Amino acid sequence: MALFRRPVRSRPIRLFLISMFVVPLVSLVALWGFAASITVVNAVSDHYYNQGVTIITNGFASLTAGLPQERAQSYLWLSSGRTTSDAQLLAARKIVDKGIPAAREALAPAQDQLSGQSRTDLNALFGDLAQLGKIRAQIDSGSMSPIDAFQAFTKIIDDQ
Fold first, then answer.
1. Which site from 2, 12, 17, 144 is most exposed, i.e. has the minimal number of CB atoms within 10 Å?
2. What is the value of pTM for the model shown?
3. Per-residue model confidence as pLDDT tens digits over 121-142
C-alpha cells in the first residue's frame, strides 16, 4: 500500500519563497535607483534654471511693461502735435527709468554663465537703452516724427 512516497525535498520551502521575493525586489530597487539618479540630476538642473529665469524676469518686469507704454505714449503725444498733456508719457518714462537699473542688477549674477550670443544681445540692448536719452530729447523737441519714435522704441523692445 505504501508504494507512492512523496519525494524528499532537498531545500526547505522557506528558502524557495524567500528567493522568489528577493530576486524581483532587488531588481526593482536597482531600477528605481537608476531612474532616481537620472531624475535627480535633471530636477536640480531645472530648479537652478527656473530660479535664474524668475530672477531675470522679475528684474526686467518694469522694463518689459514700461517700454511699450512709453512707445505708445510718445507716439500719441507726437501725433497730437505735442498739445495734449504729457503726464502719461512722463509716468511711462519713470517706469522705464526704474527698470533699467533693476535689469542690470538682475543680470549681474548671471553674467559669467551667459553664452557669447547672449552677451552680444545684451550689449545691443543696453546700447539701445543708452540711446534712450537722445531719443527722448528728440521727442521732447519735436524733431522726431511719430513713426520714427515708434520705430526707435520698437527696436529697443525687439532687442529686449
1. 2
2. 0.68
3. 888 888 999 999 999 999 999 8
